[in-house]
Amino acid sequence: MDPLASLLAFSFALASPGDASTSLDPGPSPECPKDMRLVTGTHFEEVQHLCVSPQEDTKDTHCFSYFEGITALEGATTPIRVCMDQYEAPNKKGAKPLVMKSYNSAKKYCGDRGKRVCTEQEWETACEGPEYLPLAYGWSVDKKICNSDKKWMPVDWDKFKALDDEANAEAERLWQGTPSGRFPGCASAFGIFDMMGNVEEWVTSRSHRKHPGSLMGGFWAKPWTGCRGTNDAHEPSFVFYETGFRCCAEPGTLDENGKRTKKPD
Fold it and tell me: By CB distance 3.0 to 4.6 Å, which of 129, 207, 233, 243 could disulfide with 189?
């Protein structure tokens, strides 16, 4: 079927023109700590865009540009209202993002701070913004905006069979990430940084998935990765040289400095 004809079968939402990379950080909300941002909106289970620049590599075809201003929304809706870390854990501008982290360790890290791992739907809403963009910063891949265009390095898989010094040394050798916030244009309309590239992020999976945790956002060697496209292939104990996360919290449960004001419902 012609891709445009297929797209027209959906309900359409016309997004206003604009490049999200020029959006300014909206700043903190009274409902969230200073280092988190309030993410609100309606999440649609299916969001479709028309690819106008498919590019093949050795394994797959990826889209590098979409028809600007046309977005098709379909499926179940979920209201989203959540506080989200601005940066990948440890959520500090200029800090090295944590890697070699599993979904289980992400849950513990966030839980120890009165937070939790963000859900798939929350992550997608934060990335897409109110315009339901295919990429956090706009409609077309720009390899200069985010840390997502590093050359993939061959991995010594045997060294990751055990979580030991050898595995950590191999992770260090493979590291091509950058400090959080190093790319000022790599932010969504909600002021959430590095959702594209840098470190792949654990989220809590949709209910129908096999595993409780999934990975989103790609990492430093995947410039095409967008707001949709979940990697749900791994057990919750899985760790790798580029697996990290960020945390979420219910609005009003933490004060401006991140101290717990009340227990989440």
Answer: 129
